[in-house]
Amino acid sequence: MSKPVIVVVGAGPGVSGSVARRFAAKGYDVGLLGTDADRLAELDRQVADHGAQTLAEVLDVTDVAAATSEIRSMGQWWNRIDVLHFNPSAFREKDPLELTVEELLEDVALGVGGLLTAVQAARQFMSAGGRVTVTGSMAADKPWNRAASLGVQKAGIRNLVRSIDTTLAPEGIRAVSVTVQGSLGEDGPFTPDRVAEAIWDAAHQDEASWSSEVAYHG
């Protein structure tokens, strides 16, 4: 039997990199999709050091056709996707009086719409036991007005995750967002590695008592 596979959308430093390494250390092969070629190459090397087979591609997930093609290519390569992790969001420092409708929609296309693209592309390679995980944020409930679009993205993606979970649950595929209730840092309870551990735990929660949102308080 082939190893399980995780595809990380929005791969790079921070939580997404920690998620990739965490799952690789647990025996997963890893697909990496990110926008920065240098950071992606470095993460690819780190993940391979854990013994994982890797595929890495530079990708803008808002390019629906390209994202669909790349995710399906990874699914075809391994003939499976067991976990799809979605990490991207757009940070734009503008309050509601500065933010334009076009900018808001552009940010939502990345931070929410990208998940829709990824799930639709990965679905045919997922089976019972498959999981969709998402990096959430306290911005969903306590937005900073100076980054108004981020709160909209995080609230929107949490809502979308619930709909995805309800839709896929009859097939034994579950979705969960992990709401990080703190600011990421290099030390303390909100390091990327600790958040990645929380995402691992959320993906492996008991299906009988499944929750589509898990709050991580550190």
TrEMBL record:
InterPro entries in the record: NAD(P)-bd_dom_sf, SDR_fam
Membrane-spanning parts: none
UniProt keyword annotations, A-Z: Oxidoreductase
One Gene Ontology molecular-function label: oxidoreductase activity
EC number, UniProt record: 1.1.1.381
Superkingdom, taxonomy of origin: Bacteria
Entries under SUPFAM superfamilies matching the protein: NAD(P)-binding Rossmann-fold domains
Protein name as catalogued: NADP-dependent 3-hydroxy acid dehydrogenase YdfG
Organism: Gordonia insulae
